[in-house]
Design a protein that fits this description.
- With 298 residues, this protein is of the alpha/beta class.
- It has eleven helices and twelve strands.
- The strands form two sheets. Strands 1, 2, 3, 4, 5, 6, 7, 8, 9 and 10 form a ten-stranded mixed beta sheet that branches. The chain has a two-stranded antiparallel sheet with strand order 11-12.
- A hairpin with a 4-residue loop joins β4 and β5.
Length: 298
């Protein structure tokens, strides 16, 4: 039976705001919940997402052939990870090369929306990771998505860049497309790597005030209530190539500096990702609830 994937784009114009970390862990959570998931790596500057998980089958092609060469053979485009139901499409071109092609094409900024029809029939969810800057590939990903998630750095520069870059320069620049029947997706944003201090608290208050004072927009911005705390388990998981909600213990007698993600750490991260997925994909609540009752040990 053909599917009709929901497309989630992870977008923020500031680099280093944990977009890739968010993308891979959300994609892994969705896949572990039994939903066929594709992680599409559109970060052409630092293609982290496509190289995060070990692959059991590596495709020869990737984003360049998909977007520019109009390749339709999924066996050549899609790589399979060792995580069941989780596939990836690799970022395999320098950003400027793809941008040049898109700028020279009549359908450039809306091409992905058309190309995704091929993939949406094969997956339940498609998660798109993007580069942290103003870029045609980011615009294209937002226009092709059903929902946007923006991790926000809990710092004054991070808040200023989100208001100036992500909202004013990215999202507002896409408003003219609504005149041509393209609906802009709802945007969810959340504070990531939050620490318990007065600086973070004041920054959050300021940001919420700024969002409430925005003029009416043709898309909805929701600031999620739950903060994602700063956790070392994300770094450990990245080194191991596993999801941060997986319990992992390395024998202390085999290495001098063993890796470890405790059950408590894994569960705390799982609770965070569950919260995000509930808002992004409420139609899959029952699958997420079932996964929350299981424990993943690597």
């Amino acid at each position: 039976m053909k599917k009709n994937a929901t497309v989630i784009t992870i977008a923020d114009t500031k680099g280093g705001s944990t977009k890739s970390t968010t993308a891979v862990n959300i994609a892994a959570f969705i896949a572990h919940s039994g939903l066929k998931t594709l992680l599409l790596d559109f970060d052409l500057e630092q293609p982290t997402a496509c190289s995060y998980f070990p692959l059991q089958k590596e495709a020869p092609f990737g984003v360049y052939e998909f977007l520019i060469m109009h390749e339709t053979d999924l066996n050549k485009l899609i790589s399979a990870t060792t995580t069941k139901k989780l596939d990836v499409m690799s970022s395999n071109s320098v950003r400027q090369e793809i941008v040049s092609h898109l700028n020279a094409s009549a359908d450039g900024i809306i091409r992905l929306k058309s190309c995704l029809k091929l993939l949406k029939n094969e997956y339940d969810v498609i998660v798109i990771d993007t580069v942290g800057t103003i870029d045609p590939t980011v615009n294209m990903a937002v226009l092709a998505s059903d929902v946007v998630l923006s991790p926000l750095d809990p710092s004054m520069p991070g808040v200023r860049e989100y208001l100036r870059g992500t909202i004013s320069n990215l999202f507002r620049s896409l408003i003219p497309f609504t005149d041509y029947g393209i609906e802009l997706p709802p945007v969810y944003t959340f504070f990531n790597r939050v620490e318990e201090n007065n600086d973070c608290r004041r920054i959050k208050e300021l940001f919420n005030q700024q969002i409430k004072s925005l003029p009416p927009l043709p898309f909805k911005i929701t600031v999620l209530d739950k903060d994602i705390k700063k956790k070392n388990s994300y770094k450990v998981a990245a080194s191991l190539g596993i999801a941060a909600f997986q319990h992992y213990t390395e024998p202390t007698n085999k290495v001098a500096h063993p890796y470890k993600i405790t059950k408590a750490q894994a569960q705390s991260t799982k609770d965070d990702i569950y919260y995000l997925c509930q808002h992004l994909l409420p139609m899959y609540q029952s699958q997420f609830d079932a996964f929350m009752k299981t424990e993943i040990t690597h």
